[in-house]
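user: Please review this fold.
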Amino acid sequence: MKSDSSLRRLLPFAAYFNICFFWGTAGVANKLSSSMIHPFFAGSLRFLIASVLMALWVGFRHESLAVGLRDGKTLAVGSVLMYFLNTVLLLFASRRVDAGISTVMVSLIPITILLVDSLAARKLCVSWVGIGGIIGGFAGIAVVVVGSISGGNADPIGIALLLLADIVWSVGTVYLKYQSISASVQVQIFYQSAIPAILFFFCAVLTGNFDLGKLSWRGALPMAYMGIADSIVGLTSYLYLLRRWKTSVVSTYAYINPVVGILLSALLLSEEITMAKVGGMLLILVSVFVIQREDWLSGLLTRRVKRIAD
């Protein structure tokens, strides 16, 4: 009994490690796979593996994969935006930019979500402190872009694809925020894997890039890893943590992912850790912190201004 309670206490920390590490390795895995096989082929492998494993999991739990029309529509729209289009853009971008840069650019997502949410609400959902965070975030992107392009670590098209990937993910996130889904988490993850798997397969076939003869373990292994570690373990851990920790605590994974990505890209891909990458990353992460803690910072600054005035 004592060992069981100790295990239950450790589970949230294990889940936190999963999202900090596995989601931080996505840029490296995408780079490794897309350099060996076409992105459409790579994406079909990743999501095929994830959807098959999730179908087995749902079957083991004696659940039904059937969903209602409303859930089906919501899952379809969210899956196309967040798991098909976003992954397409990231995989094609990984052919043109360093993996470390991809990870840094993805860390901008909390800021793009805020902007998309503001557009959806037709008002700026942030205070003047948050506006400073937004400006700082894009200043960080400018540092990464200028330094990386001049250093030959990226090109403008690759950077543009990464920005589009951030926007597409943010649109999907905000869309799902205003929807309700009755299906279980396991069934949701199945559809979020199966729908992009089908779309990637058709894209690969229609463009002549579904060629099993070109399949190599160096291209397939990173996508198998992504299918398991990112799509299943990472997402399941994230949803598990949201039920046990405060969202503000869970969201701190966003500060760790870029560090993991830059270090692993240097170790596994021999990418250079440049001042542009580090400086841009720090600017973005500080900006994300400002936005996520804007209420606390606004109150703190207001109190200090009052003290000075008094």
